[in-house]
Amino acid sequence: MQTTEPHHNDDHAPSALSQPSAGPDKLPGIRHVIAVASGKGGVGKSTVSVNLALALQQAGYRVGLLDADILGPSIPVMLGLPTGHQPETTADQRLVPAVRYGLKTISMAMLTGDDSPAILRGPMVGKYLQVFIGQVQWGQLDYLIFDFPPGTGDTQLTLAQSVPLSGAVVVTTPQDVSLKIARRGLRAFQTLNVTILGIVENMSTFTCPHCGKDTDIFRHGGGERMSLELGVPFLGAIPLDADIVTGGDEGHPIVAEKPNSVAAQAYVAIATELVGRLQGLPTTVLEAFNWAWDTNEGEPAWVESAVLPTGSPTTPIGFRRRDARTLSVLWEDGNRDDFDVRDLRLACPCAQCREEMSGRQLLDPKSVLQDVAPHTVSSRGNYAIMFGWNDGHSTGIYTYKHLRALAERFAGKDVEDV
Ligand code: ADP
Questions:
Q1: Is position 226 within any domain?
Q2: Domain shared by 317 and 403, yes or no
Q3: Same domain, yes or no, for 275 and 397?
Q4: Which of 226, 268, 292, 357 has its CA 20 to 30 A from that of 16?
């Protein structure tokens, strides 16, 4: 597979004042950048970042971990990486991430040693972060987990605007005060149009390792209540567990070392939930298009590098005019379907051509010209395409789900939703 290098982000100097709607460029080769954030320090944000990254990696994804907790970088210790280990650089001055437990990792601690980050202030922090974002040789990643600095100050806002985030996971503990702070953080992200992927409640119930009894040391359920109140998803709760602390201190994260423990399973469940949410979200691989079929003007992209073995079967990552009568669709899971354009016209799902309730075809195939063809193909949001046909018809919305089901039906499989 072709490797795409991350680009330099020099054109996107951070500015807390720039327009949130403009959105930063995507990082080539990285499908999803996920911020792990919290309103304040000490809630277990870095521990969640590390174990979430490991859970995703164990599920077969290519994962990177960026420790942007610039004033207190703790991830190298949690992963058992030697502190003060300087990353290698490539000939063009890109940093090569350290690899541990299969995770590609870059942390401020690798550049400055253990204690000096605390003296960095303001603009210097921003400069270092720009290096991290634009000049690391990540290669192809499915997920880049971005451990944000705690809080909701300028550094965080700048970061959220200079990195193309798929969304943010907000970590909170169940105490009220922590919830209040997390809520503030959450609002800051929302103001910047960053999708909140969900809330993780950390240090929830304590299960006694001896008697198995559950105790809610810091209360329980606050994260879930907050998600309900604010209308954002709840991703799950992590129990309070002494093994999480020892694992973190000794460089043996619990998901890697005790994968069958209740706590490790809680991280895995959160990772699964997160993947589900991201699959539901539009991918940014394809831009909106309005494509003239005959001249090929406005042709959409065909992003083979976005194929994922675990990818969604109904997310297109490419459209192509194979010949005058064939439309090819490349799906994220790597399947390619070639549609005869007349077959597509016959399968028009609009109310004129198909009875809405029963799905019975109303369109008489004999009435459709043999040489019917589109003059335009255009995208609708991130869920469908529409055709302008040369017989004057143009009202059918072909959802991606419908298109994929059609392909299966044409291939002779028995699929109901066609
Ligand atoms: P933050 O990144 O929010 O500052 P850390 O991830 O560094 O927080 O965690 C702070 C401390 O809390 C660490 O000692 C860590 O081991 C501990 N910790 C994190 N999550 C849990 C948990 N679920 N149970 C017990 N201790 C935890």
A1: yes
A2: yes
A3: no
A4: 226
Residue 417 sits at φ, ψ, to 5 deg, of -80, 65
For residues 39 and 167, state if they share a domain: yes
| Domain of residue 352, residue span | 290-417
Looking at 254, 280, 306, which one is the last position of a domain?
A: 280
| 401-to-193, 230, 349, 381 alpha-carbon distances in Å | 27, 30, 12, 14
Distance 78 CA to ligand 1 centre (A): 10
Domain assignment of residue 113, yes or no: yes
Of 66-70, 204-208, 259-263, give the lowest mean pLDDT range.
204-208
224 and 309 belong to one structural domain: no
Q: Judge if the beta carbon of residue 37 lies within 6 A of ligand 1.
A: no
pLDDT tens column, 223-258: 677 777 777 888 988 988 889 999 999 999 999 999
User: How many Å lie between the centroid of ligand 1 and the Cα of residue 75?
Assistant: 11
- Please check whether residues 217 and 357 belong to one and the same domain: no
User: How much is the pTM?
Assistant: 0.65
**And the tokens for 200?**
């993780």
Say if residue 252 is in the same domain as residue 306. Answer: no
pLDDT per residue as tens digits for the range 323-339: 999 999 999 889 999 99
Pairing of strands 63-67, 103-107: parallel
Please give the distance, rounded to the nearest whole angstrom, from the Cα atom of residue 150 to the centre of ligand 1: 13
300 to 46, 237, 252, 380: CA distances (angstroms): 39, 41, 45, 13
Among residues 280, 310, 327, the one where a domain terminates is 280
> Do 194 and 102 share a structural domain?
yes
Question: DSSP assignment of 132-147, as one string?
Answer: HHHSB---SEEEEEEE
- Structure token pair of residue 355: 């009875």
Q: Is any atom of ligand 1 closer than 6 Å to the C-beta of 240? A: yes
User: Is any ligand 1 atom within 6 A of the Cβ of residue 170?
Assistant: no
For the ranges 17-26, 208-217, 339-348, the lowest mean pLDDT is seen at 17-26
Contacts of 288 (CB under 8 A, 6+ apart): 379
The C-alpha atoms of residue 290 and residue 255 are separated, in whole angstroms, by 46
**Band of pLDDT at residue 285, cut at 50, 70 and 90:** low
The CATH number of whichever domain residue 380 belongs to comes to 3.30.2020.30
Nearest CA to ligand 1 atom 18: 44
Do 62 and 140 have their domain in common?
A: yes
Q: How many domains does the chain have?
A: 2
Indicate the range of 38-52, 133-147, 216-230, 307-321 predicted with least confidence. 216-230
**Cβ–ligand 1 contact at 316 (below 6 Å):** no
Residue 248 beta carbon below 6 angstroms from any ligand 1 atom: yes
Segment among 115-119, 130-134, 333-337, 344-348 with least mean pLDDT: 115-119
